[in-house]
Specification:
Largest sheet: 8 strands, parallel, barrel
């Protein structure tokens, strides 16, 4: 309980922004250049109906430059708070959206709660009552026990994209705290068994679960993926066990420390391109009521209208100096205080748009991130496009930035699906996409290769559906992409036909094999290793239910696929030749026994570059480490059996490592169980299959 007598206050300090505790109390600081009246509201609990103290700030005492600040003596962690801010309201001419009826969330809040949040009321003009999101005052010293961000070369990374909630929310997960950071900790042994090096967490910065279209809301659906942020410094309360107690940071740090102990890095999906406040009809949460004209891209002729390059209602004005500094400091905070290892930036092309909306090569935002000392060893991954028409795969500003390679995804989907005439581009993508990255001095590691991601079909749906089936989203199946570049094997959706299902499983293995044999950085979607399905829904953003959750029963039901993926990851990790730092040249380097790569067709050294009907491509890849075997790979995506004449191994004999047409466990075999090919001159490559051979001396029986 709090004292009846109000806490005494003094002027406070403008720095640092946000709320900061010390031995004597707490300092609060807030940026709002054009505010005229500011109040701090203190609540005992996350759901207290009324504040126990309202502190009115004096602009002569509690304002320095554009920061409003106050020190509350004796205040301790656990208090919840909001701000009330007034000022001019002339949206058309200036873009100001001050509204004294709204309670605002601290943009620097380290912990937030949503117990009394009502998005609909916050979207209406005028008083909304005490129904805002609230910040909680935290002061949680943490024992990292010597932990620090991992510094792993990007080319050695195997990324596993997972949703914190969906990973353990299914009853079959059997976790003590399903759908939370703590739940993921319980599944770390499984992640280790897969062999992945890093998890890429879908948004974990606090987001608005109520931000869904009316059709979805009427069905009781929520914003599940998390691409609706409002508090960039706070872990999402929905992934915490006790957020009302302000344990956000401790719970997230526990996850990071546990993953690091297992040798697994943490990449956080960052949504800096827009916020949960939406467009003109969206709610006022924080930025709109503090600095709307600064934070967002506004139409210059009518500043009540938002420029929308994100298809989410608003666009963050990332290259305004104030906004740039706010966002860069946020990233540095997550590295310095939360120990994350990297960031993936959603719709990252927004980060290069200047204040007039035009793309800039020397945009301050991405270059400030590139050259930040704190972020010097942090992995940076861009989704190098936006919803306003920018597509910058191969051309995102900066040199350290890796990119989600959408061109890789598309051509590999088409090739595995049976399209002809693609072998030239397939070779380029498998070799690291030098056409995209070499001209600017970048490297194969700049390409993050993927076939599936959270946005789109799962791997099983990619081989089972040709059309999206998003009716459950409540938008008349109009949402989600139309062109999936998928092939269903002849039957749409689930089937009892054993031949079709066998083909689909083989195609899924083909995708995984090609992905993990490609130069660059592979990314797997959580659940693909056990053939998780969403029933053809390619836009599960609002499906916080069994549609999107990982059913852990699939581990047993699809154990052969799980084994295949584990062994493919292991094969990649034991072959440094698949993780090269430099582009393949096809030439013999100094001291090498043979060229780094040789391309083939069905005959050695005869690649089918000029054959418009070609569906077969093969290559040999030279080992680079002492004792590393050379690899020979054949990809036959035609519907016919093909006989591939094998190139002579430089030493030893060819041993079969992978044949996706074989039933488990013959589809992939570790070195200890491999035998040399009986017929060393040719191999019968089954229709729609991938084979991998390793060269080593034959061991006498």
């Amino acid at each position: 309980m709090f004292p009846v007598v109000p806490f005494p206050v003094s002027a406070g300090s403008r720095y640092p922004p946000g709320a900061t505790c010390d031995a004597g109390g707490a300092n609060f600081s807030l940026f709002s250049r054009y505010a005229t009246d500011v109040e701090l509201l203190l609540y005992e609990r996350a759901d207290s109906p009324e504040p126990f103290q309202v502190i009115v700030l004096d602009p002569e005492v509690n304002r320095t430059f554009f920061f409003w600040h106050v020190y509350v003596e004796g205040l301790r962690p656990g208090v919840h708070y909001t701000w009330r801010v007034d000022g001019p309201d002339d949206t058309v001419a200036t873009g100001f959206r001050f509204d004294r009826g709204k309670e605002l969330l601290d943009p620097w809040a380290r912990g937030v709660t949503s117990r009394v949040w009502d998005r609909a009321r916050a979207s209406e003009p005028g008083p909304a009552g005490h129904t805002s999101l609230r910040a909680v005052l935290v002061d949680d010293p943490y024992d990292w026990e010597g932990d620090a961000p991992l510094v792993r070369p990007l080319e050695q990374t195997v990324i596993y994209e997972l949703h914190v909630g969906g990973f353990t929310r299914h009853p079959s997960a059997g976790t003590a705290h399903p759908g939370t950071f703590a739940g993921v900790i319980e599944k770390i042994p499984y992640l280790r068994s897969l062999g992945v090096t890093d998890v890429e967490l879908l948004p974990v910065m606090a987001f608005d679960e109520q931000d869904v279209p009316p059709g979805a809301a009427q069905r009781g659906l929520v914003n599940y993926w998390g691409y609706s942020p409002h508090s960039f410094y706070s872990p999402h309360p929905g992934y915490c066990v006790t957020p009302e107690e302000g344990t956000h940071r401790r719970e997230f740090r526990d996850l990071v420390k546990a993953l690091h102990r297992a040798g697994i890095g943490v990449i956080v999906d960052v949504v800096f391109n827009h916020t949960a406040e939406g467009g003109a009809d969206g709610p006022t949460i924080n930025f709109k009521g503090l600095a709307n004209e600064t934070v967002y891209h506004l139409d210059p002729t009518d500043r009540s209208r938002y420029r929308d390059y994100t298809a989410c209602g608003n666009t963050v004005n990332c290259n305004n100096p104030v906004v740039t500094r706010f966002l860069v400091e946020c990233l540095e905070y997550w590295v310095r205080e939360m120990h994350v290892d990297g960031f993936r930036f959603d719709l990252a092309s927004v980060l290069v748009r200047g204040e007039n909306g035009e793309p800039l090569w020397y945009a301050p935002m991405p270059w400030h991130i590139e050259f930040s000392h704190v972020l010097a060893h942090t992995q940076l991954i861009a989704e190098a496009w936006d919803a306003g028409g920018l597509y910058q795969v191969g051309g995102f500003p900066g040199y350290r930035w890796a990119e989600w390679n959408g061109r890789y995804r598309d051509v590999i989907r088409r090739f595995v699906g049976g399209e002809t005439g693609l072998v030239g581009e397939v070779a380029t993508r498998i070799a690291g996409s030098s056409d995209l990255y070499a001209p600017s001095g970048r490297l194969p590691m700049n390409s993050v290769n993927f076939v599936t991601a959270h946005d789109g079909f799962t791997l099983w749906d990619l081989v089972s559906y040709e059309a999206k089936h998003n009716e459950a989203n409540g938008e008349g199946n109009h949402d989600g992409v139309e062109e999936n570049l998928s092939w269903n094997g002849g039957v749409e959706g689930e089937t009892d036909d054993p031949a079709v299902n066998a083909l689909r499983r083989q195609q899924a293995k083909n995708f995984m094999a090609i992905l993990l044999l490609s130069q660059g950085v592979p990314m797997l979607l959580a659940g693909d290793e056990v053939l998780r399905t969403q029933g053809g829904n390619n836009n599960g953003y609002c499906q916080d239910n069994e549609t999107s959750w990982l059913d852990w029963g699939f581990l047993e039901r699809n154990a052969p696929m799980l084994r295949f993926v584990r062994e493919m990851v292991a094969l990649r990790r034991r072959h440094p030749s698949l993780m090269r730092r430099r582009f393949l040249s096809g030439q013999r380097r100094a001291g090498a026994r043979q060229p780094d790569i040789c391309w083939h067709g069905l005959e050695p050294f005869e690649p089918p570059w000029d054959d418009p009907e070609a569906q077969v491509l093969a290559f040999t890849l030279a080992g680079v480490a002492e004792g590393e075997e050379d690899l020979y790979v054949v990809m036959n995506l035609s519907a016919e059996l093909q006989v591939a004449v094998l190139p002579e191994p430089l030493s030893g004999a060819w041993h079969l490592a992978v044949d996706t047409a074989q039933p488990s466990p013959g589809d992939i075999t570790g070195p200890e169980s491999q035998t040399p090919l009986a017929d060393g001159g040719a191999y019968r490559v089954q229709p729609r299959s991938v084979i991998v051979l390793e060269s080593r001396p034959a061991v006498a029986p």
